[in-house]
Structures are given as structure tokens and as C-alpha cells.
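Example record

One chain of 198 residues, shown exactly as stored in the release files.
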Amino acid sequence: MIAPITLSGRHATLVPLSQDHAPALAEAVRDGELWRLWYTAVPRPEDVAGEIDRRLGLQAAGSMLPFTVLDAAGVPVGMTTYMNVDLTVPVVEIGSTWYARRVQRTGLNTEAKLLLLGHAFEALDCACVQLVTHFHNVQSRRAIERLGARLDGVLRAHRRMPDGTLRDSACYSILAAEWPAVRSHLAFQLDRPNRATR
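Predicted C-alpha cells for this chain:
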């Protein structure tokens, strides 16, 4: 089991997910009405507390480490996780991520991924980090590709969505040997003025 931890940067801070964050996260999810995107599984504002309980239950079972993402002012603006944790490899998946619209395509997501990848490769000694998204979630796929992750393939009829449809999942990964170049690339992106990366 991987232990809860706080990861801090200039644009984003990742703290252990807590029910204390539920009111602010319910407000964050209203920004952009993210639950209306059919190809995502973002909770409605009234379901945020239940989603926190679900993620904390998976943490207790050892398969997930969930975070609340705070902006530079310390305001909760989204969630992300290490999920499908397999410490025998070790490998983790970064996923179940959503952000308020106002922080999308800003340095916050780039830095959050930099912090998560850095901890996975440098502290957890992961051989691989996976990122998996809906085949039709083009925005997410482009963001993953901008990180430097490579497409491993598409799993057909991989997961059932809340609306009952079957999801094809685009599966990406970054290997430990690729991490130094990915780290340099993300640091460069963060240092660029007027950047617009998500």
C-alpha cells in the first residue's frame, strides 16, 4: 500500500483527499458543468461527497491513492489519483482526474502531472506509469500526448460508463527510462511564458 502524501509546486498542490474538501469540490465541478460530458465520469455537485467516499474506500483497499488538487491560492479545484496500483512491478495509473474549467489549459495540470510522475518514478521506483482515457475524449488524449506519454493501444469495450455505454479506452504509458526526458519537457513547458498546456 502506498502512503498518503502531499506534493507541492508553484501552481498546484496535491493533498490527501478528504471529506473536508467536499463543499469546495462541489463548487469546482459546477465550473463548466463537467458531469455533462458524456465521455467522462465526473460527479454531479450533489454526488461529490459520495465520490470522495468511493475513492477513500479504494484507498483503504490499497488500490488507489486519491488527491485533492489545490490551486496556487490553496483553493480545491479538482481531483486526481494514483489508481490500479500494483506494487509487484511496481506500476501505477494516473487517472480519474478532473479540474474546474477555469484552471484547464493552465500550468496547474502540467505541474500536477509533473509532481505525480516525479513521485511515482523517484519515490515509488515505478517501472511504468499508465494513463488511460476514453477513446472519444480528444482533449484528454491530446493532453496526455503533450506530456510525452506513448499510446500502447486501444482496449475495446473496456469499461461501462455511467450512462450504460461501453467505453473503448486509449491506453498510454511512460517508462522509467523515458522519465528524465519527460521531466525536462514538462519543466520547460512550465517555464514558458503565456503557456496554454493542459
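Notes: The chain has one domain: 7-191.
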